[in-house]
């Protein structure tokens, strides 16, 4: 077992649903369609020079690899519910609004590694920024080391849900 397989897999409820939906889509829509395409291409005869057959088999291997990955990920995953104990500190699943030195405010959500989406502000709890924000409360100031230098961020608000 390699190191990544031993590390915990944490997901929000939305993240788990997204992975389950992707797995279902691959199993019940994408894979059967590709299997049919490969069967149709195989029926045309010589498979060694049949580009549709060769491409279809390659696509089928990619889908099977993704199905295997998602199945294993979901088997090991722990769905973490947002805190509901009234805590004001940032934990897994929290939305954290920060203000940079330049006065610009940005909201991040601390999520699992499989849910990262920088366009939505979803950052991993294992990322440098995610680790800086964990267990911090509104009013706290954190220092984040980046390749371009250190930056100071002030936590404006922490909320869940």
Overview in brief:
With 161 residues, this protein is of the alpha/beta class.
Give a description of the structure.
The chain has 161 residues and is an alpha/beta fold. It folds into 2 domains: 3-79, Helix Hairpins (Orthogonal Bundle); 95-159, Roll (Chitinase A, domain 3). Helix content is 41%, strand content 24%. The chain contains 4 helices and 7 strands. The chain has helices at 3-6, 13-42, 51-76, 128-133, and strands spanning 9-11, 77-79, 95-99, 105-111, 122-124, 141-146, 149-159. The chain has a 5-stranded mixed β-sheet. Strand 6 and strand 7 form a beta hairpin. Helix 2 (13-42) packs antiparallel against helix 3. The two termini are 35 Å apart.
Which descriptors would you attach to this protein?
161 residues, alpha/beta, Helix Hairpins, Chitinase A, domain 3, 2 domains, five-stranded mixed beta sheet, 41% helix, 24% strand
* Mean of pLDDT: 93
The name of the CATH architecture of the largest domain is Orthogonal Bundle
Query: What profile does the largest beta sheet have?
Result: 5 strands, mixed
Strand order in space, largest sheet: 5-4-3-7-6
Count up the domains: 2
User: How far is the N terminus from the C terminus?
Assistant: 35 Å
CATH superfamily of the largest domain: Transcription elongation factor, GreA/GreB, N-terminal domain
Name the poorly predicted regions: none
Share of residues in strands: 15-25%
């Amino acid at each position: 077992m390699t190191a990544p397989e031993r590390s915990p897999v944490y997901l929000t409820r939305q993240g788990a649903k997204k992975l389950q939906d992707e797995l279902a889509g691959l199993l019940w829509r994408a894979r059967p369609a590709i299997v049919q395409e490969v069967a149709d291409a195989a029926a045309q005869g010589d498979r060694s020079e049949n580009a549709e057959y060769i491409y279809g088999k390659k696509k089928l291997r990619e889908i099977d690899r993704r199905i295997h990955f998602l199945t294993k990920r979901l088997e090991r995953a722990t769905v973490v519910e947002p805190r509901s104990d009234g805590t004001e500190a940032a934990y897994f699943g929290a939305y954290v609004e920060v203000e940079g030195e330049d006065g610009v405010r940005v909201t991040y959500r601390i999520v699992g590694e499989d849910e990262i989406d920088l366009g939505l502000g979803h950052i991993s709890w294992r990322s440098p920024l995610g680790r800086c924000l964990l267990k911090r409360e509104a009013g706290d100031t954190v220092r984040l080391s980046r390749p371009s230098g250190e930056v100071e961020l002030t936590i404006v608000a922490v909320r869940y849900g």
